[in-house]
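Hey,
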Amino acid sequence: MSERDRYNQKPSKIVMYTASWCPDCKRSKALLDSQGIDYLDIDIGKDNEAYRFVESITRRVRIPTIFFPDGTMMIEPSDSTLASKLEEKKRL
């Protein structure tokens, strides 16, 4: 993965901005992991630039914030919403 994917709203693969303490982040990561989906996990607690990037997009920090290669974004998605998006991606 290129470095340009780190702060890009249209990355080459799924990029998820998370924090180690966030239960919603853990839930979304578990869903991606259970389906064998490759993604870049960026912890905003360890990356100040990532924190500012998410804040600029969400107007306050809301995580997980997930960017997809098709240019779509999800903020704090439910498991069913995220699963639907992953199914859509598999069909393409």
